[in-house]
Amino acid sequence: MGIKENYSFFRKQIEETSKVIPFKIPFGQTVDKVSDTLFAHYIAEVVKDKWVRERHERDNIEKLSGSDGTYFKFYGRSGYLYIVKNRCVAEVFLEMELNGWRVYFPEKLSWVYSYQPSQTEINIETIKFEIKQWSEDNNIPIFF
């Protein structure tokens, strides 16, 4: 790879970067300096996927898939609703607002855990109906 030959060049690049960006950048992230006070941060998909796997383990979605229903796992001002249908789990993100919880749907809603790998189709209207029903049953205001 020629790392030994280019070591001094790499070291110089690191020193130059540390002069321009005055903070340490976590592993798996990239930072672009837009202006003197504005930096654009990008997180690698590998890191994001790791965070999702860890959250799924912490929320025990494998155990949730055992019975149909809607389950709410929250972390302070935000959280996730897990909707289970036929041992398949879909998730949507929620964030607390002044008058209730705001539901954010991803661009493409898909099953995050599926007992039947062939089941890929998901009906957003059915999921919205399940969320509304859960909201009414638990007296929790939800906004789409």
Quick gist of this model?
The protein is α+β, with helices and mostly antiparallel strands and 144 residues long.
Give the secondary structure arrangement, pairings included.
Layout: H1 3-20, E1 29-33, E2 39-43, H2 45-59, H3 61-64, E3 69-75, E4 78-85, E5 88-97, E6 100-104, E7 111-114, H4 124-138, E8 142-143
Q: Indicate the structural class.
A: alpha+beta
> What fraction of residues sit in β-strands?
25-35%
Question: Strand count, sense and closure of the main sheet?
Answer: 6 strands, mixed
Q: Gap between N and C termini, in Å?
A: 51 Å
The helix tally amounts to: 4
- The portion of residues assigned to helices is 25-40%
Q: How many β-strands, per DSSP? A: 8
Order of helices and strands: HEEHHEEEEEHE
Which overall shape is indicated by the principal axes computed on the Cα atoms?
A: elongated
Mean pLDDT, to the nearest integer, reads 87
Alpha carbon gyration radius: 21 Å
Q: Spans of 5+ residues with little confidence (pLDDT < 50)?
A: none
